[in-house]
Amino acid sequence: MSVVSYDNAPFPVREALSAAHNRVWRHISEPGTWFTGENRVAIANETRNAPGCALCAKRKEALSPYQVDGAHDDLGALSPGLVETIHRIVTDPARLKQDWVEGLIDAGLGDGEYVEAVGVVCMTVSVDTFNSAAGLEPPPLPDPMAGEPTRSRPPEAKPGDAWVPWIAPEDAGAYDGEVFAAASSNVQRALSLVPDGCKAFFDMVEAQYLARHEMRDFGNEFRAITHTQIEFIAGRVSALNQCVY
Amino acid sequence: MIGGADGDGGIPHSEILGRFAEAAIGDDADVLAAARMELVGALGDAAMVDTSAIVATFTAIDRVADATGIPIDAARVAPTAGLRGQLGIDSFPSNAP
After folding, report:
1. Strand, helix or coil at A148?
2. pTM of the complete model
3. Rounded to an integer, what distance in angstroms lies between the CA atom of residue A93 and that of residue A163?
4. Cα–Cα distance, B85 to A42 (Å, whole number)
5. Average model confidence (pLDDT) for chain A?
6. What share of chain A has pLDDT > 70, as a percent?
7. Residue A67's CB: how many other CB atoms inside 10 A?
8. Residues B32, A133: C-beta atoms closer than 8 Å
């Protein structure tokens, strides 16, 4: 099992970050809800491969990515639908469309599989972005752990205001204290079709950003930059990513 | 289209932080290295680490939002309408269905 270590970084990295990234790597290596550990590590590996894909580069330059056909430069371990999912989320996320998601699901990628893949891709992107931003080498991916996925779908999850089923606030009564509880924001429930993935993603977010109780505690600072600076950076990144949410 | 901002806008070191954020999600390693050095020089290593973690967080959160098509939270639609229009945010491609 590979571990993420910042012990040799030329500057201190707070322990909470190192611990959170190790939890992410462990989460990815384990059997998930719809994928085995081997599948999930392959998804992380394909996430790293996507920026070098020639088809994705052509689509990125095109007025519409949906007008450019071709085959992805992939590593050969995953289905075409999963490769398309991963590559588009990595390389051109702002131009994803509901029809595209529905097309993938109609073609055989389950909605649970899709949501689980989104979580694994985005956690991998996040850990890798942290390392590249800080000038560190990306950590080696973990070795997959054996076992079968749980294939457990929360009975409360159903189609709602997002493109994928989720646990809506009125259906989240059994989830008090969870990140996707009734009072949560839409982004906190976006991955709730796969509760374990949703929890793992926001466990990482809390370590990197702020814990829920810290977000609105403006009387104290919890990082080496202030609340105001944090929100400025968040807004700048989302604007550059052209993310409306 | 959101352009580059001039000045700190009342947020200490926002120019430096903004340059670093932009470089961190860009693809020019030299620009990123220069922005990192500038940030460390102004605010120190711990601030660079925490800024990297914020960039890493939101570049992932944006992808979760884009890939799942979640709407803006109802409570935030009206209060942010003017700002979204003024800044052109409603014209972002991720606002298309």
Report:
1. coil
2. 0.94
3. 14
4. 41
5. 96
6. 99
7. 8
8. yes
For residue A125, the SS3 value is helix
Residue A77: which residues within 8 A CB-CB, separation 6 or more? A42, A45, A46
Contact between chains at B73 and A123 (C-beta distance less than 8 A): no
Question: What letter represents residue B22's amino acid?
Answer: E
* Residue B61 touches chain A, beta carbons under 8 Å: yes
The residues facing A158 across adjacent strands are: A166
Chain A residues 59-88 with a CB less than 8 Å from chain B: none
* pLDDT at residue A169 tops 50: yes
Q: Are B94 and A240 in contact (CB under 8 A)?
A: no
- The ipTM (two decimal places) reads 0.96
Q: Which chain B residues have a beta carbon less than 8 Å from that of A126?
A: 56-57, 59-60
Average pLDDT over residues A59-82: 96
Whether A30 contacts A37, CB under 8 Å = yes
* Per-residue pLDDT tens digits for A131-140: 999 999 999 9
Angle at the Cα of A74 (from A73 to A77), degrees rounded to 5? 160
Lookup: tokens for A170 = 């009125």
CB nearest to B57's CB, from A161, A208, A236: A208
Residue A17 and residue B62: Cβ atoms within 8 Å?
no
Please say if the pLDDT value at position B2 is more than 70: no
CA distance B20 to chain A (A): 8
pLDDT cut 70: percent of chain B above it: 90
Structure-block tokens of residue A139: 């950590």
Q: Which 3-state string (H, E, C) describes A40-67?
A: HHHHHHHHHHHHHCHHHHHHHHCCCHHH
Written as six digits, the tokens of A99 are: 């029809």
At A37 the pLDDT is 98
